[in-house]
Design a protein that fits this description.
rod-shaped; about 220 residues; Nuclear Transport Factor 2, Chain: A; 7 helices; 3-stranded antiparallel β-sheet
C-alpha cells in the first residue's frame, strides 16, 4: 500500500514537472519501444507509459548541430546593399560627367559662333574672370580685329571634339579648328585645347587663348 502511494505521488510530481516545463516553453524528449526519439513541448501528448522516462532537452543539446552537418552561418545582405549603393553612386557620377560634358560642348559651340561672326563684345562675356581681369573688353575687341588669322570653321566643321572634365567647375575641350589668313590663302587646321571654367552659372573660356595665332 505504501509503495503504491509513493508511486502515485512520484507520478503526480513527474506530470506536474512536465506541465511546469511546458509553461516555460521547454522541449521534452522521450523514446518509444521501437527506439524512435520523440520531441514535444506538450507533456499531454506523451503516452502515460513513457512519461517517467521523458527528459527535458537542454539548450546545448537542442542547438548542437549533428556531425557532418556543420554549415557556416549565412551572412546578411549587407554586402549586396553596399554593392548596390556603390553601383548607384557610380551611375550618378557618370550621369553628372555626361551632363557637364554636354554643357561644355554647348558653350564652346556658342563661343565659336560668336568668334566666326566677329561679335567680339558678346564673345568677351564668355571669358572667365581671370582673363577678363587681365584684358578689358575694348582691348580684347581691338586685338581680335587685328589678328592676321580668322576662324574658318563653323561648329559643323570642327573635328575631333573631346571634353575632359576635372570636377564640377573645370574642364578642358580639345578640337581641330580651321584658321584662314585674312589676306587670303589656304585654311590651316590645328588641334587646340581650351580651358573652361564654370563661373556665374555658365562655362567660361580663357580669352587670352583666343588671341593667339595658330602655330606655323
Amino acid at each position: 500500500m505504501r509503495k503504491e502511494i509513493i508511486k502515485t505521488v512520484m507520478g503526480g510530481v513527474l506530470i506536474s514537472g512536465l506541465f511546469f516545463s511546458e509553461a516555460f516553453g521547454e522541449i521534452l524528449k522521450w523514446v518509444d519501444e521501437e527506439g524512435k526519439v520523440h520531441l514535444t513541448e506538450d507533456p499531454s501528448t506523451i503516452p502515460e507509459r513513457y512519461r517517467e522516462q521523458a527528459k527535458k532537452l537542454s539548450v546545448l543539446e537542442e542547438d548542437e548541430p549533428q556531425k557532418g552537418d556543420l554549415k557556416s552561418p549565412k551572412r546578411s545582405g549587407s554586402n549586396g546593399t553596399i554593392q548596390k549603393s556603390q553601383s548607384q553612386s557610380k551611375e550618378a557620377r557618370q550621369s553628372r560627367s555626361q551632363r557637364i560634358e554636354s554643357d561644355v560642348r554647348e558653350a564652346f559651340e556658342r563661343i565659336l559662333s560668336l568668334w566666326k561672326d566677329e561679335k567680339y563684345q558678346a564673345l568677351y562675356e564668355y571669358g572667365d574672370r581671370k582673363s577678363r581681369t587681365r584684358i578689358a573688353k575694348e582691348e580684347f575687341e581691338r586685338r581680335m580685329k587685328k589678328r592676321r588669322w580668322e576662324l574658318a570653321s563653323s561648329w559643323e566643321r570642327v573635328r575631333d571634339v573631346e571634353v575632359e572634365t576635372k570636377g564640377d567647375s573645370l574642364a578642358y575641350i580639345s578640337a581641330k579648328i580651321g584658321y584662314r589668313p585674312k589676306q587670303g590663302g589656304e585654311t590651316r587646321f590645328q588641334t587646340q585645347t581650351y580651358q573652361m571654367r564654370f563661373e556665374k552659372g555658365g562655362w567660361r573660356i580663357d580669352l587670352t587663348k583666343l588671341l593667339q595665332d595658330p602655330r606655323k
